[in-house]
Amino acid sequence: MDVIVQLQRQIVDFTASLYREGYVDDQFTQLQKLQDESSPDFVMEVASLFFVDCEKLVNNMARALELQAVDFKQVDSHVHQLKGSSSSVGAARIKNACIAFRTYCESQDREGCLRCLQLVNHEYAQLKIKLQTLFRLEQQIVAAGGTIPVLQ
Amino acid sequence: MSSSQNSTVTKEEMFDGNENHINNGNPFSVLVVDDDNVVRTIHKMMLEVKGMEVQLATNGKEAVDLHRVGACFNLILMDKDMPVMNGYQATKELRDMGVNCPIIGVTSSTEEAELEEFMEAGLDDCICKPLTIEKIACYLPGVASTSTANHRDDYDDYVEVEDENADRASSTNSNNN
Protein backbone atom coordinates (compact mmCIF):
# COMPACT_ATOMS: atom_id res chain seq x y z
CA MET A 1 0.00 0.00 0.00
CA ASP A 2 2.92 2.33 0.78
CA VAL A 3 4.25 1.73 -2.71
CA ILE A 4 0.92 2.74 -4.24
CA VAL A 5 0.66 5.86 -2.12
CA GLN A 6 4.21 6.79 -3.05
CA LEU A 7 3.52 6.27 -6.75
CA GLN A 8 0.31 8.27 -6.53
CA ARG A 9 2.17 11.11 -4.86
CA GLN A 10 4.81 10.95 -7.60
CA ILE A 11 2.16 11.13 -10.31
CA VAL A 12 0.39 14.08 -8.71
CA ASP A 13 3.66 15.98 -8.34
CA PHE A 14 4.82 15.11 -11.83
CA THR A 15 1.52 16.05 -13.44
CA ALA A 16 1.46 19.32 -11.52
CA SER A 17 4.93 20.10 -12.88
CA LEU A 18 3.72 19.51 -16.45
CA TYR A 19 1.13 22.24 -15.98
CA ARG A 20 3.40 24.53 -14.00
CA GLU A 21 6.12 24.38 -16.65
CA GLY A 22 3.60 24.96 -19.43
CA TYR A 23 4.03 21.65 -21.22
CA VAL A 24 0.28 20.99 -21.08
CA ASP A 25 -2.78 23.11 -20.50
CA ASP A 26 -6.39 22.62 -19.51
CA GLN A 27 -7.17 20.78 -22.74
CA PHE A 28 -4.98 17.92 -21.46
CA THR A 29 -7.17 17.81 -18.35
CA GLN A 30 -10.21 17.49 -20.63
CA LEU A 31 -8.60 14.45 -22.28
CA GLN A 32 -7.86 12.86 -18.90
CA LYS A 33 -11.50 13.33 -17.91
CA LEU A 34 -12.55 11.38 -21.00
CA GLN A 35 -10.52 8.37 -19.84
CA ASP A 36 -12.45 5.78 -17.85
CA GLU A 37 -12.83 2.02 -17.35
CA SER A 38 -14.22 1.58 -20.86
CA SER A 39 -11.29 3.45 -22.42
CA PRO A 40 -8.45 3.18 -19.86
CA ASP A 41 -5.69 4.00 -22.34
CA PHE A 42 -7.39 6.85 -24.17
CA VAL A 43 -4.85 9.54 -23.28
CA MET A 44 -1.90 7.30 -24.12
CA GLU A 45 -3.49 6.36 -27.46
CA VAL A 46 -4.19 9.97 -28.38
CA ALA A 47 -0.67 10.96 -27.34
CA SER A 48 0.78 8.19 -29.53
CA LEU A 49 -1.26 9.37 -32.52
CA PHE A 50 -0.15 12.93 -31.85
CA PHE A 51 3.54 12.00 -31.71
CA VAL A 52 3.32 10.11 -35.00
CA ASP A 53 1.58 13.09 -36.63
CA CYS A 54 4.02 15.55 -35.09
CA GLU A 55 7.05 13.68 -36.42
CA LYS A 56 5.55 13.47 -39.87
CA LEU A 57 4.69 17.18 -39.95
CA VAL A 58 8.10 18.25 -38.61
CA ASN A 59 9.81 16.14 -41.30
CA ASN A 60 7.57 17.73 -43.94
CA MET A 61 8.45 21.21 -42.67
CA ALA A 62 12.18 20.40 -42.66
CA ARG A 63 12.07 19.07 -46.22
CA ALA A 64 10.12 22.09 -47.43
CA LEU A 65 12.59 24.49 -45.81
CA GLU A 66 15.57 22.71 -47.37
CA LEU A 67 14.47 23.60 -50.87
CA GLN A 68 16.18 26.39 -52.75
CA ALA A 69 12.81 28.01 -53.44
CA VAL A 70 10.86 27.54 -50.23
CA ASP A 71 7.11 27.21 -50.60
CA PHE A 72 6.15 29.13 -47.45
CA LYS A 73 2.46 28.42 -48.01
CA GLN A 74 3.19 24.72 -47.84
CA VAL A 75 5.29 25.14 -44.69
CA ASP A 76 2.52 27.26 -43.18
CA SER A 77 -0.05 24.60 -43.97
CA HIS A 78 1.99 21.99 -42.05
CA VAL A 79 2.43 24.40 -39.12
CA HIS A 80 -1.27 25.21 -39.15
CA GLN A 81 -2.13 21.53 -38.93
CA LEU A 82 0.31 20.97 -36.07
CA LYS A 83 -1.13 23.98 -34.26
CA GLY A 84 -4.60 22.47 -34.50
CA SER A 85 -3.65 19.04 -33.25
CA SER A 86 -1.36 20.35 -30.51
CA SER A 87 -4.08 22.65 -29.19
CA SER A 88 -6.54 19.75 -29.25
CA VAL A 89 -4.32 17.52 -27.09
CA GLY A 90 -3.29 20.35 -24.78
CA ALA A 91 0.35 20.43 -25.90
CA ALA A 92 0.67 24.10 -24.95
CA ARG A 93 4.36 24.73 -25.66
CA ILE A 94 4.17 23.11 -29.08
CA LYS A 95 1.02 25.08 -29.88
CA ASN A 96 2.68 28.34 -28.83
CA ALA A 97 5.76 27.53 -30.92
CA CYS A 98 3.48 27.02 -33.93
CA ILE A 99 1.88 30.42 -33.41
CA ALA A 100 5.29 32.11 -33.69
CA PHE A 101 6.25 29.86 -36.57
CA ARG A 102 3.29 31.05 -38.63
CA THR A 103 4.34 34.68 -38.39
CA TYR A 104 7.73 33.79 -39.91
CA CYS A 105 5.97 31.83 -42.67
CA GLU A 106 3.81 34.87 -43.41
CA SER A 107 6.85 37.13 -43.67
CA GLN A 108 8.67 34.44 -45.69
CA ASP A 109 11.60 34.55 -43.30
CA ARG A 110 13.54 31.31 -43.87
CA GLU A 111 15.95 31.81 -40.99
CA GLY A 112 13.10 32.59 -38.62
CA CYS A 113 11.27 29.50 -39.82
CA LEU A 114 14.33 27.33 -39.25
CA ARG A 115 14.68 28.67 -35.69
CA CYS A 116 11.03 27.91 -35.04
CA LEU A 117 11.38 24.45 -36.51
CA GLN A 118 14.23 23.83 -34.10
CA LEU A 119 12.04 25.03 -31.24
CA VAL A 120 9.09 22.87 -32.29
CA ASN A 121 11.37 19.84 -32.52
CA HIS A 122 12.83 20.60 -29.11
CA GLU A 123 9.41 21.04 -27.48
CA TYR A 124 8.11 17.87 -29.12
CA ALA A 125 11.08 15.84 -27.86
CA GLN A 126 10.66 17.25 -24.33
CA LEU A 127 6.92 16.60 -24.23
CA LYS A 128 7.36 13.07 -25.50
CA ILE A 129 9.83 12.26 -22.71
CA LYS A 130 7.56 13.86 -20.09
CA LEU A 131 4.41 12.04 -21.19
CA GLN A 132 6.19 8.72 -21.53
CA THR A 133 7.35 9.15 -17.94
CA LEU A 134 3.79 9.93 -16.85
CA PHE A 135 2.36 6.90 -18.64
CA ARG A 136 5.06 4.68 -17.14
CA LEU A 137 4.15 5.86 -13.64
CA GLU A 138 0.46 5.23 -14.38
CA GLN A 139 1.22 1.72 -15.57
CA GLN A 140 3.25 1.05 -12.42
CA ILE A 141 0.33 2.13 -10.23
CA VAL A 142 -2.13 -0.06 -12.10
CA ALA A 143 0.28 -3.01 -11.96
CA ALA A 144 0.59 -2.51 -8.19
CA GLY A 145 -3.21 -2.62 -7.88
CA GLY A 146 -3.74 1.08 -7.30
CA THR A 147 -5.79 3.74 -9.08
CA ILE A 148 -4.48 6.68 -11.03
CA PRO A 149 -5.11 9.95 -9.19
CA VAL A 150 -6.59 12.79 -11.23
CA LEU A 151 -5.14 16.23 -10.62
CA GLN A 152 -7.98 18.69 -9.93
CA MET B 1 -19.09 34.61 -33.72
CA SER B 2 -22.56 33.17 -34.00
CA SER B 3 -25.32 33.46 -36.52
CA SER B 4 -28.05 30.88 -36.23
CA GLN B 5 -29.59 32.00 -39.46
CA ASN B 6 -28.45 29.23 -41.75
CA SER B 7 -29.91 26.04 -40.34
CA THR B 8 -33.69 26.04 -40.57
CA VAL B 9 -34.03 23.87 -37.48
CA THR B 10 -34.88 25.88 -34.38
CA LYS B 11 -33.89 24.78 -30.90
CA GLU B 12 -37.58 24.36 -30.04
CA GLU B 13 -37.92 21.90 -32.89
CA MET B 14 -34.78 20.03 -31.84
CA PHE B 15 -35.71 19.60 -28.19
CA ASP B 16 -39.06 19.06 -26.50
CA GLY B 17 -38.50 21.57 -23.73
CA ASN B 18 -37.07 18.97 -21.39
CA GLU B 19 -33.85 18.81 -23.37
CA ASN B 20 -34.95 15.47 -24.80
CA HIS B 21 -34.05 15.30 -28.42
CA ILE B 22 -36.95 14.83 -30.81
CA ASN B 23 -35.42 12.38 -33.24
CA ASN B 24 -37.91 9.52 -33.54
CA GLY B 25 -36.13 7.76 -30.70
CA ASN B 26 -32.83 7.72 -32.57
CA PRO B 27 -29.67 8.92 -30.85
CA PHE B 28 -28.46 12.45 -31.60
CA SER B 29 -26.05 12.08 -34.49
CA VAL B 30 -23.00 14.24 -35.16
CA LEU B 31 -20.78 14.27 -38.22
CA VAL B 32 -17.18 15.28 -37.40
CA VAL B 33 -15.33 16.47 -40.49
CA ASP B 34 -11.57 16.94 -40.00
CA ASP B 35 -8.48 15.77 -41.88
CA ASP B 36 -6.50 15.36 -38.65
CA ASN B 37 -6.69 11.90 -37.09
CA VAL B 38 -5.81 13.19 -33.61
CA VAL B 39 -8.57 15.80 -33.73
CA ARG B 40 -11.15 13.32 -35.05
CA THR B 41 -10.30 10.85 -32.28
CA ILE B 42 -10.66 13.47 -29.55
CA HIS B 43 -13.84 15.03 -30.87
CA LYS B 44 -15.43 11.59 -31.33
CA MET B 45 -14.69 10.61 -27.73
CA MET B 46 -15.89 13.97 -26.36
CA LEU B 47 -19.22 13.54 -28.07
CA GLU B 48 -19.68 9.82 -27.43
CA VAL B 49 -19.24 10.17 -23.67
CA LYS B 50 -22.16 12.62 -23.82
CA GLY B 51 -24.28 9.98 -25.55
CA MET B 52 -24.03 11.26 -29.11
CA GLU B 53 -23.64 8.97 -32.09
CA VAL B 54 -20.63 10.08 -34.10
CA GLN B 55 -19.62 9.54 -37.69
CA LEU B 56 -16.30 10.72 -39.09
CA ALA B 57 -15.26 12.21 -42.42
CA THR B 58 -11.67 13.05 -43.33
CA ASN B 59 -12.47 15.90 -45.71
CA GLY B 60 -15.33 17.98 -47.10
CA LYS B 61 -15.92 15.71 -50.07
CA GLU B 62 -16.53 12.70 -47.81
CA ALA B 63 -19.03 14.77 -45.84
CA VAL B 64 -20.88 15.81 -49.00
CA ASP B 65 -20.81 12.25 -50.40
CA LEU B 66 -22.35 10.92 -47.19
CA HIS B 67 -25.29 13.26 -47.64
CA ARG B 68 -25.62 12.42 -51.31
CA VAL B 69 -26.24 8.76 -50.40
CA GLY B 70 -28.89 9.78 -47.91
CA ALA B 71 -27.06 10.18 -44.59
CA CYS B 72 -28.58 12.69 -42.25
CA PHE B 73 -27.18 14.24 -39.08
CA ASN B 74 -28.41 16.45 -36.26
CA LEU B 75 -25.18 18.44 -36.13
CA ILE B 76 -22.06 18.80 -38.27
CA LEU B 77 -18.67 19.92 -36.92
CA MET B 78 -16.69 21.18 -39.90
CA ASP B 79 -12.95 21.86 -40.01
CA LYS B 80 -11.92 24.69 -42.32
CA ASP B 81 -8.65 23.66 -43.92
CA MET B 82 -8.79 20.21 -45.45
CA PRO B 83 -7.44 18.62 -48.61
CA VAL B 84 -9.65 17.52 -51.53
CA MET B 85 -12.54 19.78 -50.41
CA ASN B 86 -12.19 22.36 -47.65
CA GLY B 87 -14.78 23.28 -45.05
CA TYR B 88 -15.95 26.38 -46.86
CA GLN B 89 -16.69 24.50 -50.08
CA ALA B 90 -18.28 21.58 -48.26
CA THR B 91 -20.55 23.84 -46.21
CA LYS B 92 -21.69 25.70 -49.32
CA GLU B 93 -22.44 22.45 -51.12
CA LEU B 94 -24.33 21.01 -48.18
CA ARG B 95 -26.50 24.14 -47.92
CA ASP B 96 -27.09 24.09 -51.67
CA MET B 97 -28.19 20.46 -51.33
CA GLY B 98 -30.74 21.55 -48.76
CA VAL B 99 -28.95 20.25 -45.65
CA ASN B 100 -30.46 22.35 -42.89
CA CYS B 101 -29.00 20.98 -39.67
CA PRO B 102 -26.65 23.22 -37.66
CA ILE B 103 -23.13 23.30 -39.10
CA ILE B 104 -20.43 24.56 -36.72
CA GLY B 105 -17.05 25.56 -38.10
CA VAL B 106 -14.14 24.33 -35.95
CA THR B 107 -10.83 25.87 -36.92
CA SER B 108 -7.37 26.80 -35.65
CA SER B 109 -7.61 30.03 -37.62
CA THR B 110 -7.81 33.22 -35.62
CA GLU B 111 -7.88 35.69 -38.51
CA GLU B 112 -11.12 37.69 -38.32
CA ALA B 113 -11.44 37.89 -42.10
CA GLU B 114 -10.96 34.14 -42.53
CA LEU B 115 -13.57 33.34 -39.88
CA GLU B 116 -16.08 35.74 -41.42
CA GLU B 117 -15.53 34.25 -44.84
CA PHE B 118 -16.05 30.75 -43.40
CA MET B 119 -19.29 31.91 -41.77
CA GLU B 120 -20.51 33.18 -45.13
CA ALA B 121 -20.45 29.63 -46.49
CA GLY B 122 -23.51 28.95 -44.38
CA LEU B 123 -22.29 28.13 -40.89
CA ASP B 124 -24.40 28.60 -37.80
CA ASP B 125 -21.34 29.28 -35.67
CA CYS B 126 -17.57 29.20 -35.84
CA ILE B 127 -15.31 28.27 -32.94
CA CYS B 128 -11.57 28.14 -32.44
CA LYS B 129 -9.81 24.92 -31.56
CA PRO B 130 -9.49 23.33 -29.11
CA LEU B 131 -13.05 22.10 -29.13
CA THR B 132 -14.70 21.71 -25.75
CA ILE B 133 -18.20 20.51 -25.01
CA GLU B 134 -18.93 23.86 -23.36
CA LYS B 135 -18.35 25.65 -26.66
CA ILE B 136 -21.07 23.65 -28.42
CA ALA B 137 -23.33 22.85 -25.43
CA CYS B 138 -26.24 24.85 -26.82
CA TYR B 139 -26.32 22.57 -29.88
CA LEU B 140 -26.31 19.32 -27.89
CA PRO B 141 -29.29 17.78 -26.08
CA GLY B 142 -29.01 17.30 -22.34
CA VAL B 143 -25.74 19.20 -22.07
CA ALA B 144 -25.87 22.26 -19.85
CA SER B 145 -23.60 25.12 -20.76
CA THR B 146 -21.40 26.12 -17.80
CA SER B 147 -19.10 28.43 -19.68
CA THR B 148 -19.54 32.17 -19.85
CA ALA B 149 -16.36 32.58 -21.86
CA ASN B 150 -16.47 34.40 -25.15
CA HIS B 151 -15.22 32.12 -27.95
CA ARG B 152 -13.19 35.02 -29.27
CA ASP B 153 -11.21 35.11 -25.97
CA ASP B 154 -9.09 32.35 -27.54
CA TYR B 155 -7.69 34.95 -29.95
CA ASP B 156 -6.46 37.18 -27.13
CA ASP B 157 -4.51 34.25 -25.65
CA TYR B 158 -2.77 33.72 -28.99
CA VAL B 159 -1.68 37.34 -29.19
CA GLU B 160 -0.11 37.17 -25.71
CA VAL B 161 2.02 34.12 -26.42
CA GLU B 162 3.82 35.64 -29.40
CA ASP B 163 6.23 37.58 -27.16
CA GLU B 164 6.90 34.50 -25.03
CA ASN B 165 7.71 32.53 -28.15
CA ALA B 166 10.20 35.09 -29.38
CA ASP B 167 12.04 34.90 -26.04
CA ARG B 168 11.99 31.11 -26.00
CA ALA B 169 13.19 30.83 -29.61
CA SER B 170 16.20 33.07 -29.04
CA SER B 171 16.95 31.31 -25.72
CA THR B 172 16.96 27.86 -27.39
CA ASN B 173 19.12 29.22 -30.19
CA SER B 174 21.74 30.65 -27.83
CA ASN B 175 21.75 27.46 -25.71
CA ASN B 176 22.56 25.42 -28.81
CA ASN B 177 25.46 27.66 -29.91
From TrEMBL, chain A:
Regions that span the bilayer: none
Residue numbers bearing the Phosphohistidine modification: 80
Keywords: Cytokinin signaling pathway, Phosphoprotein, Two-component regulatory system
Record keyword Cytoplasm present: no
All copies of domain HPt, residue ranges: 39-134
InterPro entries, A to Z: AHP1-5/YPD1 (IPR045871), HPT_dom_sf (IPR036641), Sig_transdc_His_kin_Hpt_dom (IPR008207)
Compartments where found: Cytoplasm, Cytosol; Nucleus
Domain comment as written in the entry: Histidine-containing phosphotransfer domain (HPt) contains an active histidine that mediates the phosphotransfer.
Function: Functions as a two-component phosphorelay mediators between cytokinin sensor histidine kinases and response regulators (B-type ARRs). Plays an important role in propagating cytokinin signal transduction.
Name the record gives this protein: Histidine-containing phosphotransfer protein
Organism whose genome encodes this protein: Hevea brasiliensis
Automatic annotation (TrEMBL), chain B:
Gene3D superfamilies: 3.40.50.2300
Region (Disordered), start-end ranges: 1-21
InterPro entries found in the cross-reference section: CheY-like_superfamily, Sig_transdc_resp-reg_receiver, ST_Response_Regulator
Modified residues annotated as 4-aspartylphosphate in this record: 79
Pfam entry (one): Response_reg
Protein origin, superkingdom: Eukaryota
PROSITE patterns: RESPONSE_REGULATORY (PS50110)
Domain Response regulatory: 29-144
Stated name of the protein: Response regulatory domain-containing protein
Organism this protein belongs to: Hevea brasiliensis
This protein's UniProt keywords: Phosphoprotein
